[in-house]
């Protein structure tokens, strides 16, 4: 399917522009070209940042009700063009049409929450008379926008994760420059179209398409860009922290999420939830279930049910309603996942389901007998692979779950409140889902992790806190 989008243009400081150098956007299912977009240059990024300086002033002066109105209108535009957005996500990325529709629904919600949270940017009064000698002083603090935000977004949620950057930035009165994933720029450009329709002043928003290796450093290092909001891989995230300099950094860098299943759990519910959590978006999901620790007494029963359900997961054409999972984003990633599987089996792991690759597709794969120190158990797979481990106790499961340098989210299945509370307090993660898999999130909650999973929190209200600073005001009454 050939998509037409703004005549192959990018959104630079509120204007649609094209460039001679183009980037091919390919459907990962069959590698067909579905569109081309401009390959921005360093000079483009410099211009964009200069324009954003004026945009930041305009954004800061926008009354709250105007910010709210603009974001609501953008959300309405997405809703009115729902099918176009969903089809774009499915065509340029790795999601099935069913998964793409859910992402569009979430993006609409993200924008609507952003509009509501704009009215809740508040300060507090300060009791200066708590300090002897300050009896005649009174005051408060309020939050003000930091200025220009640089946002770098990944391919796996090409619309909603962009909305998670733009919505809070505009709600809090900032200008924002978005560098979307090179593989999936079309959804971000459609969202720019939504904000243009909504009446966002020029220069407040840019969506710059291009190669990160060519334009990324300029965005990251320019001192006028006061915050970098990055969602992506750990290696790139660490490189950004070394280059960024003295500015705010918010990062979500993925995980290899654990789930614990105790012997008193609802087994069928645990199986259904963890199979879904392992293979959503072909496992290309930062919350994807990667490691499942099952109490030994029920391990064999759990494994049998889990493997059987996995074998019924349908891999195929993304636009077919009956398809459960589609391809990986490109063949390089598919080969990488295949290699991880082969390396694990060479060291003794057993394939209970899947394990094969065809082009960009990797079968939903279940591994057992995996060495806990193998890379596949220590790193983020970002593919449709899950590992099952028997454990002797909750203490052992928690220790194993914590024995990696990631900590985004975890899940535990149990009917024992004391066991659940123990896991909640001892698991080294940013969120614990009780009687659900790690793969659950609503867009209003604080979202982020510990250890190698990143810095700061997303979730609209919490992103707004990151995107604003506090200013203290003190009056002397003498």
UniProtKB/TrEMBL annotation:
Keyword check for Oxidoreductase: yes
Keyword Glycoprotein tagged: no
Q: What family does this belong to?
A: Belongs to the aldehyde dehydrogenase family.
Q: Which InterPro entries match?
A: Ald_DH/histidinol_DH, Ald_DH_C, Ald_DH_N, Aldehyde_DH_dom, ALDH-related_metabolic_enz
The lineage is: Bacteria, Bacillati, Bacillota, Bacilli, Bacillales
- Protein name, as recorded: Aldehyde dehydrogenase
Organism, as annotated = Alkalihalobacillus alcalophilus ATCC 27647 = CGMCC 1.3604
Q: Which UniProt keywords apply?
A: Oxidoreductase
In terms of SUPFAM superfamilies, this protein maps to: ALDH-like (SSF53720)
Which Pfam families does the record match to this protein?
Aldedh
CDD domains reported for this sequence: ALDH_y4uC (cd07149)
Q: Give this protein's Gene Ontology molecular function annotations.
A: lactaldehyde dehydrogenase (NAD+) activity
Q: Which PANTHER family match?
A: ALDEHYDE DEHYDROGENASE
């Amino acid at each position: 399917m050939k998509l037409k989008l703004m005549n192959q243009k990018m959104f630079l400081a509120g204007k649609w522009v094209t460039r001679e150098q183009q980037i091919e956007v390919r459907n990962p299912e069959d590698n067909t070209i579905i569109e081309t977009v401009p390959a921005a240059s360093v000079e483009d990024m410099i211009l964009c940042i200069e324009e954003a300086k004026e945009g930041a002033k305009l954004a800061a002066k926008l009354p709250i009700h105007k910010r709210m109105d603009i974001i609501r209108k953008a959300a309405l535009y997405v809703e009115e063009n729902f099918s176009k957005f969903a089809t774009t996500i499915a065509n340029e990325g790795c999601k099935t049409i069913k998964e793409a529709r859910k992402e569009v629904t979430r993006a609409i919600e993200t924008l609507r929450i952003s509009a509501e949270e704009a009215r809740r940017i508040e300060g507090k009064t300060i009791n200066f008379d708590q300090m002897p000698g300050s009896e005649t002083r009174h005051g408060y603090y309020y939050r003000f926008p930091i200025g220009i935000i640089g946002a770098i977004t990944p391919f796996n949620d090409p619309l909603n994760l962009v909305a998670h950057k733009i919505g809070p930035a505009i709600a809090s009165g900032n200008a924002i420059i978005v560098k979307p994933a090179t593989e999936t720029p079309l959804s971000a450009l459609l969202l720019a179209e939504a904000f243009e329709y909504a009446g966002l002043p020029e220069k407040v928003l840019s969506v710059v398409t291009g190669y990160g290796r060519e334009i990324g450093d300029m965005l990251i290092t320019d001192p006028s860009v006061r915050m970098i909001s990055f969602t992506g891989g750990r290696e790139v995230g660490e490189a950004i922290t070394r280059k960024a300099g003295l500015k705010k950094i918010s990062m979500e860098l993925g995980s290899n999420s654990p789930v614990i299943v105790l012997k008193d759990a609802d087994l069928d519910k645990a199986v259904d939830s963890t199979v879904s959590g392992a293979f959503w978006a072909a496992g290309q999901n930062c919350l994807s279930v990667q490691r499942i620790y099952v109490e030994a007494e029920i391990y064999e029963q759990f494994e049998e049910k889990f493997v059987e359900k996995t074998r019924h997961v349908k891999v195929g054409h993304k636009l077919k309603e009956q398809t459960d999972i589609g391809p990986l984003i490109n063949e390089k990633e598919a080969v990488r996942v295949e290699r991880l599987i082969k390396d694990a089996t060479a060291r003794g792991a057993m394939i209970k389901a899947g394990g094969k690759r065809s082009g960009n597709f990797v079968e939903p794969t279940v591994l057992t007998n995996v060495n806990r120190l193998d890379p596949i158990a220590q790193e983020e797979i970002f593919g449709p692979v899950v590992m099952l481990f028997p454990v002797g106790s909750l203490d052992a499961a928690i220790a194993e779950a914590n024995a990696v340098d990631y900590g985004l989210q975890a899940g535990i299945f149990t009917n024992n409140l004391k066991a659940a509370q123990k896991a909640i307090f001892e698991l080294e993660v940013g969120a614990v889902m009780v009687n659900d898999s790690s793969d659950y999130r609503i867009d209003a909650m604080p979202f982020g992790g510990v250890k190698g999973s990143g810095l700061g929190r997303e979730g609209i209200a919490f992103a707004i806190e990151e995107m604003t600073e506090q200013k203290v005001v003190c009056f002397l009454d003498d």
